[in-house]
């Protein structure tokens, strides 16, 4: 699969990347209905990515992220998809936060860099 066969879908919502203590319960505010929520627990932390409108005051959070989703289901044998998105953005000084699900990949970009990221990636990907 080459990049021109891949489509990136821009999600509408603005997201937050939150950090809670590893021992915290998954909070109810993070489990509302949304196009995208990611909850990851490690030995060191509980990370939650959700619409920033869900995040209550007092939560450690990095606000203002927009999300691109790789459209469709990706086979586990495919390689280099995230790097083909990350590399051109990195060359242009745009940082990403990447998350993969069973089916596909999601790339978060700061809201102020999002239009530039779309312009850069539209050279190699279809954008919806």
From TrEMBL:
<dbReference type="InterPro" id="IPR016540">
    <property type="entry name" value="UCP008459"/>
</dbReference>
<dbReference type="Pfam" id="PF13840">
    <property type="entry name" value="ACT_7"/>
</dbReference>
<dbReference type="InterPro" id="IPR045865">
    <property type="entry name" value="ACT-like_dom_sf"/>
</dbReference>
<protein>
    <submittedName>
        <fullName>Uncharacterized protein</fullName>
    </submittedName>
</protein>
<feature type="domain" description="A9CJY8-like N-terminal">
    <location>
        <begin position="14"/>
        <end position="57"/>
    </location>
</feature>
<dbReference type="InterPro" id="IPR027795">
    <property type="entry name" value="CASTOR_ACT_dom"/>
</dbReference>
<dbReference type="InterPro" id="IPR049447">
    <property type="entry name" value="A9CJY8-like_N"/>
</dbReference>
<dbReference type="Pfam" id="PF21631">
    <property type="entry name" value="A9CJY8-like_N"/>
</dbReference>
<dbReference type="InterPro" id="IPR051719">
    <property type="entry name" value="CASTOR_mTORC1"/>
</dbReference>
<feature type="domain" description="CASTOR ACT">
    <location>
        <begin position="62"/>
        <end position="122"/>
    </location>
</feature>
């Amino acid at each position: 699969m080459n990049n021109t066969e891949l489509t990136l879908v821009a999600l509408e919502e603005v997201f937050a990347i939150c950090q809670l203590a590893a021992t915290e319960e998954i909070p109810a505010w993070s489990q509302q209905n949304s196009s995208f929520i990611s909850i990851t627990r490690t030995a060191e932390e509980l990370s939650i990515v959700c619409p920033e409108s869900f995040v209550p005051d007092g939560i450690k959070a990095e606000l203002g992220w927009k999300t691109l989703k790789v459209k469709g289901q990706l086979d586990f044998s495919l390689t280099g998809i995230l790097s083909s998105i990350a590399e051109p953005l990195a060359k242009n000084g745009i940082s990403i936060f990447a998350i993969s699900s069973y089916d596909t990949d999601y790339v978060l970009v700061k809201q102020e860099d999002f239009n530039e990221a779309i312009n850069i990636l539209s050279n190699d990907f279809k954008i919806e």
